[in-house]
Design brief:
235 residues; alpha/beta; 7-stranded mixed beta sheet; 8 helices; globular
Length: 235
Amino acid sequence: MNIATHTGPLIDDELDLLASLVPLADQRIIELGCGAAQLARALLGRYPGSAVTALEVDTRQHAKNLAKPQERLTFLAAGAQAIPAADADFDLALMLKSLHHVPGPLMATALGEAARVLRPGGHLYVSEPVYAGPFNDLIRLFNDEGVVRAAAQAALDAALRGGGFEPVAEQRFDMPVHFRDFDDFEQRLMRPTFADHAIDDARLAAVRSAFERHGTDDGVRFRRPMHVRLLRRRA
């Protein structure tokens, strides 16, 4: 089994890490950039007394989310830079691999919005991919996120300097990623509904060649390094 050298503990379910850092029972939670809302759905299955409002800007993914309703899970078509919620309305805000997708000039606005909708003492949990490792080396062949990921960390640093948040914890871990074959990888990573990576035949062939060098009998497995920063809204 070909798994890259890791940078932290291997955590298969990020909900376990989240639960170790913040209370999740009977909480009002907002997720900014929910994607398919997998963690939100699992969270409500484990903590049915909580409620999640999940924002998504990808209209195709938002439609898919609406087609699978779940009790106490509300989907809204909106971005983190303009949250349609009242001040101090939530106990916890989640950004799971989403801050670096916010347009650079709007990252500070998005973090300011997160502070606005959190109650004093509420938490902001930001989980971002680390720009390093074999999996990242493969991704950047068609989608180099080095600049935007650095901008996301800089925006968090600026938000802390601004005084609205205080740091609580940092955690680095590895998330296992498995692909059955290259077709699985291509559909999931190279052709998302929210972006066009301009994949031509030459680039497709180059990525396929790099991907297949990691192949094993049960597909391809990576350890994706992640960096979590937990902030608390100041009074």
